[in-house]
């Protein structure tokens, strides 16, 4: 599971750089993150939260995260 | 001097007034939890992890750091540079090289600028809670060959995978965390075995002059005090913190810097530029102009030097710790010694 998500992160190398994709985890659950190309965000599937990438800088402060709806779309649910 | 005496006299009178509750907004906040004494040491150390006391407003600190990013751009701060230089100097004492390093909040710019290839760092990750700070750090193009990545994150919720970096540097940032032991434990987890943790935090003696001046001015003008300066860790706590976080070979040392300012207002401007202004959660949100000016006047009358400048003390606690590794020296089992200390004493001449 870890290896799989790491491969997924590497494929989306243009969104964030390689060094970061190798070491970043979800700040709350410490589980691997998935890059969502469509919404330009990092998604933590374990807790269902997406973290934005602004100007190529991933924002992983818990307060910046958005809770995802059940169907998987990023929404402004709080 | 007469002025100070009159002040003390007035305080004595004011103390009697305290007995009666005056206005609600000026309630005398004698909460022990805000004192430097109980900050992170002793009993409260055990309590803090269980009840998760919130002391600082992290959101506000973020805003402060956004402001600091604008105030400190294109300027080199000698005090911050001195601390960063002192911290990075420790890398030269290590035989080991650190291919990947993580630099936590506080003074990012100076750390990046002064690194100058020390410690053999190949990959550097800069992290801060403020997006503006990170951006200004990225835009300040220094000619170094280190592969640098940027990231916005909270020290209290470190988004770094376990055992992934060789070195963590934090220059003047960790004293704003609510859960300092927790953050340090997360740092330790993020380090690879035999990784180094280097941190500089402000200690309890910091801005003692301002603390005194503030208290006196508040008592005089408002008839009560509210915390204006944040509680800071004491030197004796720093060692405990390192051991508690599970670092091996902990090392703590203290440096005191005295910075001279033209006036107390310049001091406040400097604090703003560093992003070190008050961010207590239970702070009094209103600061009277009168009180502020009184603080400046008291500061000036009590601490001014002959040349008209006012000194401000900054106590910086440097902490060093390693993540445990088999190569580290280990203490032997108790009672496993084969030689008596008395014999050693005799052998080496017995000169006390």
From TrEMBL, chain A:
Gene3D superfamilies attached to this UniProt entry: 2.20.25.10
Pfam name, any one: Trm112p
UniProt family annotation: Belongs to the PREY family.
Protein name as it appears in the record: Protein preY, mitochondrial
Automatic annotation (TrEMBL), chain B:
GO biological process, any: methylation
UniProt cross-references to Pfam families, sorted A to Z: Methyltransf_11 (PF08241)
UniProt keyword Zinc, yes or no: no
GO molecular function: S-adenosylmethionine-dependent methyltransferase activity
Keyword field: Methyltransferase, Transferase
Occurrences of domain Methyltransferase type (ranges): 104-198
Keyword Signal: no
One Gene Ontology cellular component: mitochondrion
PANTHER family, per the entry: ARGININE-HYDROXYLASE NDUFAF5, MITOCHONDRIAL
Protein name: Methyltransferase type 11 domain-containing protein
Species classification: Eukaryota, Viridiplantae, Streptophyta, Embryophyta, Tracheophyta
């Amino acid at each position: 599971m870890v290896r799989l998500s790491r491969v997924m992160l590497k494929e989306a190398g243009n969104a964030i750089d390689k060094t970061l994709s190798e070491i970043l985890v979800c700040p709350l659950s410490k589980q691997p993150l998935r890059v969502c190309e469509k919404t330009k965000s990092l998604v933590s599937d374990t807790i269902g939260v997406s973290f934005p990438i602004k100007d190529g800088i991933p924002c992983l402060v818990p307060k910046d995260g958005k809770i995802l709806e059940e169907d998987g779309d990023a929404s402004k649910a709080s | 001097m007469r002025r100070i005496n009159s002040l003390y006299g007035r305080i004595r009178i004011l103390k009697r007034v305290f007995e009666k509750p005056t206005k609600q907004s000026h309630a005398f906040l004698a909460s022990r939890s805000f004192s430097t004494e109980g900050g992170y040491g002793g009993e409260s150390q055990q309590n803090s992890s269980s009840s998760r006391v919130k002391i600082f407003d992290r959101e506000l600190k973020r805003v402060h750091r956004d402001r600091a990013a604008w105030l400190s751009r294109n300027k080199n701060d000698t005090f911050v540079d001195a601390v960063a230089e002192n911290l990075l100097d420790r890398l030269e004492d290590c035989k080991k090289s650190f291919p990947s390093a993580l630099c936590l909040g506080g003074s990012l710019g100076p750390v990046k600028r002064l690194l100058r290839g020390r410690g053999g760092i190949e990959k550097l990750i800069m992290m801060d809670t403020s997006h503006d700070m990170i951006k200004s750090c990225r835009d300040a193009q220094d000619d170094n060959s280190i592969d640098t990545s940027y990231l916005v994150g909270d020290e209290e919720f470190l988004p770094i995978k376990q055992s992934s970096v060789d070195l963590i540097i934090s220059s003047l940032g960790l004293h704003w965390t609510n859960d300092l032991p927790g953050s340090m434990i997360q740092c330790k987890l993020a380090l690879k075995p035999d990784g180094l943790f280097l941190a500089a935090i402000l200690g309890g003696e910091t801005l003692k002059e301002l603390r005194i001046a503030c208290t006196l001015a508040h008592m005089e003008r408002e008839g009560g005090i509210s915390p204006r300066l944040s509680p800071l860790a004491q030197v004796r706590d720093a060692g405990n913190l390192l051991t508690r976080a599970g670092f091996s070979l902990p090392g703590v040392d203290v440096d005191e810097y005295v910075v001279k300012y033209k006036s107390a207002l310049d001091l406040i401007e400097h604090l703003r530029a560093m992003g070190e202004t008050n961010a207590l959660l239970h702070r009094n949100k209103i600061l009277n102009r009168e009180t502020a000016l009184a603080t400046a006047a008291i500061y000036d009358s009590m601490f001014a030097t002959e040349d008209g400048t006012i000194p401000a003390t900054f106590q910086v606690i440097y902490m060093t710790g390693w993540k445990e590794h088999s190569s580290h020296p280990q203490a032997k089992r108790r009672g496993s010694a084969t030689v008596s200390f008395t014999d050693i004493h005799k052998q080496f001449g017995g000169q006390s």
